[in-house]
Amino acid sequence: RLILGRTGTGKTTQVFSRAMESARQRRRTILLVPEQFSFQAEKRVYTTLKGEDALSVSVLSFSRLSENIFRAWGGLARKRLTDTAKLVLMKLAVEEMKDTLTVYQKQRSRTSFLNTMLQTVEELKQSGTYPEALSHIARLEKDPPFTAKLHDIAGIYGAYQAMVDRSYSDPLDDIAKAATLAEEHLYFDGMSIFLDGFSFFSPPQRQLLHAMMEQ
Fold first, then answer.
1. What are the φ and ψ backbone dihedral angles of 156, each rounded to 5 degrees?
2. Cα–Cα dist 5/9, whole Å
3. Runs of H (alpha helix) within 74-202
4. Using CA atoms, how far apart are residues 141 and 135, in angstroms rounded to an integer?
5. Phi and psi (nearest 5°) for 195?
6. What pLDDT does 109 receive?
7. Nearest CA to 42 among 25, 70, 23, 66?
8. What is the pLDDT of residue 74?
9. Which of 1, 70, 94, 173 has the least CB density, counted as fewest CB within 10 Å?
10. What is the mean pLDDT of the chain?
11. pLDDT for position 105
């Protein structure tokens, strides 16, 4: 259900009112808001609801929701990926792919290239694009030089991600992994979920939203 209207027409008030009514009926309720609004929303909830009613509602951002899903179904045990670990793993990934690189063969030993690849991988993750999708795009591309670049990036990205997955947990992967777990385990089954305050959703967030709406 969408509540539509221009700024100042009471959309947030309406969403909040419906979320509080859901909590009073003791339904498992999530109020999902952007990170920067979570404290304000929590304060409003706990000044509105008393006793056990307040226990029925969780005010969450996408990152905190992902953590809750991991607590329920696993995913918090691995070490968090640090900037130093990222650089080391990227260097190892590039070295592993050295015999298959074409466009980036000469640049592979430069620290500046490793940093550029890390930035590229982070942007791809934030857009919800993973190595398999990048390889698929490369197969469809008709421009040979661009295809060669995509193949190099997809290969390095895939090698890097495989190393991350073996030993680390990358915060940039959290929402997509949480969405997969939520889909597998029907995490949102029986919940009432309300969203407010977002101006857009990233592809991983949309995947998590899809799991909510399906369930």
1. -65, -45
2. 6
3. 83-96, 111-126, 131-140, 144-167, 174-185
4. 10
5. -125, 145
6. 87
7. 23
8. 82
9. 1
10. 93
11. 93
Burial letters 120-157, b for 16+ CB under 10 A, else e: ebeebbeebbbbeebbeebeeeeeeeebbbbbbbbbbb
- Residue 78, pLDDT above cutoff 90: no
Three-state DSSP at 99 gives coil
Burial, 178: exposed, middle or buried (Cβ in 10 Å; 0-12, 13-18, 19+)? buried
pLDDT for position 161: 95
**pLDDT at residue 211 above 80?**
yes
Cβ atoms of 192 and 22 within 8 Å: the answer is: yes
Strand 57-60 to 29-32 pairing: parallel
Extract the tokens encoding 22.
């859901």
Copy the structure tokens of residue 176: 């997509």
Residue 35's identity, in one-letter code, is E
Compute the distance between CA of residue 176 and CA of residue 182 in angstroms, rounded to an integer: 10
Q: At what angle do helices 144-167 and 111-126 cross, to 10 degrees?
A: 80
Q: Which two tokens stand for residue 152?
A: 């190099």
pTM, entire model: 0.80
